[in-house]
Write a structure and sequence with these properties.
eight-stranded mixed sheet, 37% strand, mainly beta, globular, 1 helix, UDP N-Acetylglucosamine Acyltransferase, domain 1
Length: 170
């Protein structure tokens, strides 16, 4: 379901894939070739949500801001895994956000980082670029390697391929 809220309608380029079960509401802007998968909720009713080009938000994820304080900003080539909660946070370019992770208000995930599955990133946490964080609460584990960066891009490119397949299905 795609619907306006208080007169603001989501902006979705024709190169994007949005599953019919997803809910995109209000002040949401998708970049070119972004994809929003089954039962994801992007609720732009209290603050803006911006998804960068070539990024994907997978099944059952929830993105929501904090009124008059924090929007949700996802960079380019970001993979947001299944059942992730992004609340009032910033995820910079080329990140992998593992399944079931929770990233809270005011947190910033630096470019080229991996947040491991099930990780909780508390409010106002700053994850340095190129880092692996894991746990609840999340803690720094190590700097990423070139191979890790290739893995991040492989996930993003896989979803670009899936997007094209789903768009062809109509």
């Amino acid at each position: 379901m795609i619907r306006s809220f208080k007169g603001v309608r989501p902006t979705i380029p024709p190169t994007c894939y949005v599953d019919e079960s997803a809910q995109i509401i209000g002040d949401v802007l998708l970049g070119q070739h972004a994809s929003i998968w089954m039962n994801a909720v992007l609720r732009g009713d209290v603050h803006e949500i911006r998804i960068g080009a070539n990024s994907n938000v997978q099944d059952n994820s929830v993105l929501h801001g904090m009124k008059q304080q924090h929007g949700v900003y996802v960079g380019e080539y970001v993979t947001v895994g299944h059942s992730v909660t992004l609340h009032g946070c910033i995820v910079e370019d080329r990140c992998l956000i593992g399944m079931g992770s929770i990233i809270l208000n005011g947190a910033r995930i630096g470019a080229g980082s991996i947040i491991a599955a099930g990780t909780l990133i508390p409010e106002k946490t700053v994850v340095e670029p190129g880092s692996l964080w894991m746990g609840s609460p999340g803690t720094f584990r190590r700097k990423l390697t070139d191979a890790d960066g290739e893995t991040i891009m492989r996930y993003a490119k896989n979803y670009l391929g899936y997007k094209e397949e789903y768009l062809r299905e109509g």
